[in-house]
Amino acid sequence: MSGRLFPLSVKMTAGFLMAVLFQGTVAAPVPALAAEPFPEVKAKAHVVMEFETGLVLDGHREDEPLPPASMTKMMTEYLVLEKIRSGEIGWEDRVRISARAAAIDEAQVYLIAGEEWTIRQLFEAMAVYSANDATVALAEHLAGSEETFVKWMNEKAKELKMTNTHFRNSTGLNEASYPNPPKGEGKHVMSARDAANLARRLLLDFPEVKEIIAKPRITFRGREYANWNRMLPGQSQFYRGVDGVKTGYTDEAGYCFAGTAERDGMRLVTVVMGTGSQSARFQETRRLLDAGFENYDLKPLIFEDKPLPGYMERIPVPNGVARDVAIAADRTLVLPVRKDQMKKYTFRVTYTRNVVAPLTAGTPVAEVTVLYDGKKIPGVEPVRLVVRESVEEAGWLRLFFRKLGDAISGWFG
C-alpha cells in the first residue's frame, strides 16, 4: 500500500515519508554477492553464516549438493537429542549392538556384536570421534533399522528447509564401506548452506550438545580417542572461540568441516567442503573466521517499542481526536554489521494502511526494510511500525472547527 492511500489532506506528508531514506544511521549484513572482505577459499564449496540471524555473509557454490561425509552425523545427533528431549529415550538407556553395526568400519570404536553400551557412550563416540559403528547402533536402536532412521533424517531435512540435501545413511560413509547399506534412491548429498543451517539448528535447538562436541577427547573401553576437530583448545589447529561442530572425510567428499566460533558476543558458523587435506579444512576455516570477526559486529539496529532511529516519532492522524500518534517498532532487529560500510545502509519505510482513526494501540501502519547499497538484504524480514496509542475518531464538528482554526492561523501566520 503506497502513500496514495492516505487522505488528501496529508498526501504531501505521506509522499515525503514514503520517499525518505535515512543514511548512515543503521547497518546490515553484506549479502554474499558483496563479499569482498572474505578471502578466496580452496574448497569445492563454502559458506559463512551468522548464528543469531542465520544470514549468509559469504559463500561459494553454497547451494550445490555435494557429498558431506561425516557432517551427516549432525542430523543423527539432532534426531537422538530430539528423542531424548521428548522422553522417548534416556541417556543411560542400554543399546545392544547388532552384528551389522559392529561390522561398519572406517572411524570406529570397535563395537562387538551382542555387547551393550549406553546411549550417552555411543553418542559421545559418534559426536567426538565420528565413530561409524556407534552411529549405526544408535540409528538401529531408535528406529528399528537404519533404513527407517534414514527416512526420519530426510523428513527432518525437509522440516528444516534443507532443500539441497538427501540422505542415504546415518553416517555419511560411501556405500562400499557398508556390508549391507540401507536401501534407497538418489545420491547422499548436502549443500554447504544446508550443512550450516543444520549446525546452527543443532546448537540453537539443543545448546547442551556443546558440552559434548567441544570435548577434546573421550575414553571408550579404556582407550582414548581424540576429537577430529583440531581447532578445539589443546589441539594442533587451536582457534580461540571454536567449540564445534563436525568434521567429515571420504575419498569422494574430500576433507569437510562444519565449524563454529564465538567472539565478542557474535557467533559464526562456517562450512568448507572438498578441501585437499585434513589441515587444509582447518586453515581455510581459520581464514573465513578471521575475516568474519575482523569485518563484522553484531548490533541491534532497531529497538522494540522505540521510534525508528532518524525518523519522526509521531505521524499525523487527520481525522483523529488527537492530531497525531506516536509510532514505534514492534520488535528489536539485531544484525551483523560491516564495520567499514556504514554509509551504504539505509531504511526504507513503506506504509501498509491509511493512518486514519479509529486506531487501536499496536495497529501496524508501516514496514521498515533495511537496505545495503540500495538493495534489500536477503533473509532480513521487514520490521513493522505500530501506533503506540489508541486514537478515537473525531466528530465532524470538531474537524470543522479544527480546519477553521488552522485556516485562520494560516492567514495571520
Mean pLDDT: 88
Shape: elongated
Report on the biggest sheet. Answer: 6 strands, antiparallel
Q: CATH class of the largest domain, anyone? A: Alpha Beta
What is the structural class? alpha+beta
Q: In percent, how much strand structure appears in the residues?
A: 15-25%
The number of helices is 10
Give an overview in words.
The active site is at residues 70, 73, 130. It catalyses: Preferential cleavage: (Ac)2-L-Lys-D-Ala-|-D-Ala. Also transpeptidation of peptidyl-alanyl moieties that are N-acyl substituents of D-alanine. Belongs to the peptidase S11 family. The chain has 413 residues and is of the alpha+beta class. It has two domains: 3-28 and 300-412, Peptidoglycan synthesis regulatory factor (PBP3), Domain 2 (Sandwich), CATH 2.60.410.10; 43-275, DD-peptidase/beta-lactamase superfamily (Beta-lactamase, 3-Layer(aba) Sandwich), CATH 3.40.710.10. Helix content is 28%, strand content 24%. The protein has ten helices and 17 strands. The strands form five sheets. Strands 11, 12, 14, 15, 16 and 17 form a six-stranded antiparallel beta sheet that branches. Strands 2-1-9-8-7 form a five-stranded antiparallel beta sheet, sandwiched between helices. Strands 3-4 form a two-stranded antiparallel sheet. The model is unreliable at 1-34 (pLDDT under 50).
